[in-house]
What does this fold into?
Amino acid sequence: MTHQTANRIIAVLVFLLTAAMYLVTIAPTVVFWDVGEFIAAAYMLQVPHPPGSPFFLLVTRVAMMFPVVSDLAVRAHALSAILSASAIMFLYLVIMRVITRFRGIPTTIAEKVLVFGSAVIGALSLAWSTTYWDNAIEAEVYGASMFFLGAILWLAMRWLERSDKEGNEKYILFIAYLIGLSLGVHLLALLSIFPVLMIIYFKRYEYSFNGFIKLWMVAIVTFAIVYPGIVKWLPGMMDGEFGGTKSDVVAAIPWILIVLVCYGVYSSYKKKQRVLHLALLSVLLIFFGYTTYTSVLIRSNMKPPMNENDPSNLARLTSYLGREQYGNAPIFQRRFSQEPQHQGIYTNYTSDMDFLIRYQLNHMFTRYLLWNYAGSEGDWQDARANLFPLNDVFNGIAGAFGKSTPFAGEGRDSLLCIPLLIGLLGVYYQFKRDWKMGVVFLTMFIILGPILALYQNQQEPQPRE
It folds into this structure.
């Protein structure tokens, strides 16, 4: 059996195992928070809370047509389970490519067990983590969003392997289209722009400090073109409004830009300007993927029972897309809320920096990360991460003699920090063997973790874990 065949078989087995696990533990009916709203909105193609997630609703509606179970909610949950399992399969495939990139294709039985086993364990560590599993068994947008993120990263690694072959651009174009489609689910996958561009840079160019700075300038501009450019500004300008100014001239600008991009695609193809052609065609495909939001306009004008914010014209759609009903959270001011309940809580912190570090970063990000890879003290609200594996050793010794210890706690979930320590060892080994890919994935972790936590600027308290 060839390496490629074995890799595909194991990838399918990882998917089947994960999907079976999620489907067995799936929520038996409607659950709390946004799930019930999404299910009702998908069933009748209604308009839920901003920004609507229209592509997610369309796909969920199709899933609900399959009569596999009588409860419509469970049919919607099943879609999330399958998409979440697919993301785990993509993660396995990405890990395999990362390992074989610096280690080579395994040849002996021992090497195959080591390489394939490492990739399987790495993928399943996410599949069985508390946070991911919770989102995989209910009809929320996060499973679908992780599916897009996994697929995009897998395509980027596929491009890396085939970047010197004719037609390799198809992977980049497919990535662009998936990013556009993902906007109709959640904005998370949009952040994949940064690691994808880093992979392209490290493959096509020799590393230099100035080159790396230019890469980040290009990445930031690319990100801005998509968000807020295509996502927020373009619909507003189509309505004739930009920056508080409204005129017919502004309304014409989006259509002129679209025509210019289309002409640029044609002209760059004729002149064999490959980089420009690829860039413009990617922007066009992102825009095409984003057009799932036309369904919000269409359905809102049908006046369904659920029609939140009534985005029935471009002006209202722009407000809907901009999430204006939630207000603005300033990036550089942490304790910004003027509500009495928040003002009282703010007195527990000495400064904005103290609130940022202790609550927004430690409590709302690091704690959850450690829940999954170090263990938690229990399953109650605001339970801390279990960073004291020795406590469990003492409990085990005392338990053998039928005695309790002061370290005992109800509902403890201890992993003895083993996954965390293995992960840190893996980070070290990755940088030692292939620092470029190490930088790519470390950057991705930082952007999708601490930086995203900073951007969200969450208030205390949050209504759920």
Q: What stands out?
A: The beta strands are 241-242, 245-246, 375-376, 413-414. The mean pLDDT is 90. Residues 72-103 form the longest helix (32 residues).
